[in-house]
Amino acid sequence: MKRTTMLMLCGLTCLVAMAGKKSSAKILLDRLGELQQKGIMIGHQDALFYGTTWKWEFGRSDMKDVCGDFPAVLGCELSGLDFGKEKNIDGVPFQHMRQQIISFAQQGGIITLSWHPDNPLNGLDAWNVEGKAVEAVLPQGQKHDDMVQRINKIICFIKSLKTADGKAIPVIFRPWHEMSGDWFWWGTRQCTTEQYKALFQMTHQLFEKAHVNQVVWCYSPGADAKDTPEHYFSFYPGDAYVDLLGVDLYQFASDEEFIRMGQNEMKIMHNYSLSHHKLFALTETGYRNTPNASWFTTVLEQAVKGFRPSYILFWRNAWDKKEENFGPAPEKNCANDFRKFHDNPDLLFLSDIRTKFNPQK
Ligand code: BMA
Questions:
Q1: Given the DSSP bridges, would you call strands 73-77 and 110-114 parallel, antiparallel or unpaired?
Q2: Contact, 45 vs 172, CB < 8 A?
Q3: Does the residue 195 lie in any domain?
Q4: CA-closest residue to ligand 1 atom 4
Q5: CA–CA separation, 149 vs 137, rounded Å?
Q6: What is the residue-wise DSSP string for 5-49?
């Protein structure tokens, strides 16, 4: 055998061996990196479970009803799973969630998981800010063991996300989000930044201890009108714990203000992501009930203009709360505008990413 052929074969074997060792989280990270070069993926929370006018028609999606395409990113919510409940806080059965995640991943879709865990001190919901709950769940705290058990339930669910041939399905996990606000028990008024970082790190370490290798970790503060890099990173647990930077930005004021804030947050994340090799995304967004019929093309597109976030995720079109409606839907005035948005070649939907860098194909 010629030396060059031998070297080539050896190279190939090494590559195959390396590929064999690549965790599914790393495969997803690499895919996200490649896709980011192609465009911005569009996502929708709970897209496959319900819309404002329908529910539990699995296989349907408001976005598909509007533009003929599924979102590239599916957001799912885990609240309740940590107590072994059958359904999440919004009534989605975890069994169905698991089936939908598996089938969506097999079609090439990307999954992100949010979690609004109940207050560990009183069992009330995530928005209950009574007591020093973060301190209580950290090691030495009186609710630490309970929280470890709760996190272990989340781990079990994530580990159960596998293809038919047993391959781990990677997910983007976005725990302890919007900590820069004061509405959750892990928020800014309820704990110190050091306690927050310890909470994030503890969660990450429990996943590591359980050998979970299918999670891409996301840090996502709420947007702040006066955000600066120092403020954005004040809760940051460190590069070792985070793969993807995110921000949750909703429109509450004028179009101009939303665009200004979007540009500011994009710049902060973009700059850091370049120097620290991270990805970044608009992890939650929307304008309640989308009163501006051309919001997607005239406001949202402007808010991210010039930047390449990995994805933009619209929050849910809730079946149970009329005021919680953030994505496109056929009955909304913005449907036409969303079809234009869909035609933008820089925006990626499921049909665009299905075959692009899809490790399942
Ligand atoms: C919040 C709201 C709630 C919902 C929760 C979890 O932002 O949409 O109505 O229960 O997310 O999905």
A1: parallel
A2: no
A3: yes
A4: 90
A5: 11
A6: HHHHHHHHHHHHHHHHH--HHHHHHHHHHHHHHH-EEEEEETTTT
How many domains does the chain divide into?
1
110 forms beta bridges with 73
CATH of the domain at 230: 3.20.20.80
Residue pLDDT, tens place only, 76-106: 999 999 999 999 999 999 999 999 999 999 9
Nearest CA to ligand 1 atom 2: 324
Backbone angles phi, psi at 141, to 5 degrees: -80, 160
Condensed to tens digits (0 to 9), the pLDDT of residues 281-339 reads: 999 999 999 999 999 999 999 999 999 999 999 999 999 999 999 999 999 999 999 99
The Cα-based distances of 40 to 52, 99, 294, 346, 358 in angstroms read 26, 26, 19, 6, 16
In a domain, 46, yes or no: yes
Pocket test for ligand 1, best of 77, 250, 322 (most atoms within 8 A of CB): 77
Is residue 173 within a helix (H) or strand (E), and if so which, with residue range?
strand 171-174
Q: Is 20 within the bounds of a domain?
A: no
